[in-house]
Structure formats: structure tokens, C-alpha cells
Amino acid sequence: MLTIALSKGRLAEQAIELLEKAGYDCTAAKEKSRKLILEDPNTGLRFILAKPADVPTYVEYGAADLGVVGKDTLLEEGRQLYEVLDLGFGRCKMCVAGPKELKDGKLDKIPNKRVGTKYPNITRAYFEGVKKESVEIIKLNGSVELAPLIGLSEVIVDIVESGRTLFENGLDVIETVADISARVVVNRVSMNMKSDEIRPMIEKLREQVAIMNDKKEES
Ligand code: PRP
After folding, report:
1. What atom in ligand 1 is closest to the CA of residue 143?
2. Could you tell me which of 99, 132, 138 has the C-alpha nearest to residue 115?
3. Cβ < 6 Å from ligand 1: which residues?
4. Which helix (H) or strand (E) holds 72?
5. Which terminus of the chain faces fewer neighbouring Cβ atoms within 10 Å, N or C?
6. What's the CATH number for 2-90+181-218?
7. What is the value of pTM for the model shown?
8. Residue range 92-180, CATH number
């Protein structure tokens, strides 16, 4: 029996679709209900539906053998697990964003910056680790774009997908911090103890991802 932790919502739906293409019967996982554990004894797969930020926790502690979760969550949570596959969907960028006037290096000229974000660890690693600059990080829980508009911070660190939220609020990408997409993660003990189930699954998923990427290149 393999337990797979999925991030509730769109990532879970796309992960299930991919697993089905890879030949795994996910009828149980597609059940429309409020159940959080979806299990089909015939397939040997059990799905748990978790908040995205909790998926790495379930996998690190072995409550789930595998998980599908965004790279943003992995970077922020910093859990001990194996990241084995980039699934290629859920693509977006983690960016420093703010008023257009701060583009082209002008951001670097502002001392003692305040940065609003839902991702304090990613923000710290970027400004302190990469840019060698100390900033004040202000933790927010959503609608982060408000912060520079209302004078709470000079910039934000947040996910940019279509860019529409930034555009409609008169903000722009200033720097890119990381490319984000959905990843498969595996518990370190399960990788050894259940390798006869996990490794073939990773390979089948890898094949499907390659097919998906080929199709994208063709179109
Ligand atoms: C995310 C993110 C941005 C927006 C980016 O917010 O935090 O606000 O999506 O998408 P876009 O570039 O396509 O406009 P989410 O919808 O998760 O809500 P939140 O603001 O409550 O975090």
C-alpha cells in the first residue's frame, strides 16, 4: 500500500490525471466528497488530501510515502525528503514585485527595505543568502499585493502566474527568485523500504511528463 499526499485543489486534480495516464486507477481519488482519505483496496493506493503547506510534513514524517506539492511550498517548508520529479504543471515564478519605478537596479538603492510576503523563509534566503542584504520581512497571509500599494512595504515576494494581479494593481516584476512547478517528493525511508512500488511509479510518471512536454513543444 502506497500513501500519496496531494495538495487540495487544482494540483491534486492534475496529479490524479497524470497518475491515471501513467496507468494507475484513481477512481477512489476522484470521488466527489469531503473525505480526506480516499482509498481503493483493489489498487493499493491511498490518497490523503492536505493543505499544500502540510504535504511536505506528512511526507517527511512518513505518514505519506509520496506527495505532490509546489516547489514554492518545498522551498518555504525546507523539509527533509527526496524531491524526485518535476511534473511540469502548476508553473509560475516566485518574484520580487513592486512599483515599476524600482526596476532596473533601483530596488538595490533603497536601504532597510520592508518586504511583505507569505513566504518569509524564501524571502530571507533570497535577500540575505543571495543578495547579501538584510531586510525587514513582514509576514502576510494573502492579497500580498496590497502591501506596497498601501505603504506597508516597499516590495513583496510572491507567486506570479499570469501577471494579471500585479498588472491590475499597477505593480511589476522586479526580480525573479525561483521557477516554480509541481514536484513529486518521497519519504526517505519509504524510498528504500517500498522501492519496488515507488521507483516504477516515478518512472511511469516521468514517461508521461516527457510525453506532455513533447506535446507542448509541438503545439
Ligand atoms: C496568488 C498569488 C498572487 C496571484 C498571482 O494568489 O499570491 O496574488 O495568485 O496570480 P496571477 O499572476 O495569475 O495574477 P492567490 O490566488 O493564491 O490568493 P492570495 O492572494 O489570497 O494568496
Report:
1. 20
2. 138
3. 142-145, 158-165
4. helix 71-77
5. C
6. 3.40.190.10
7. 0.94
8. 3.40.190.10
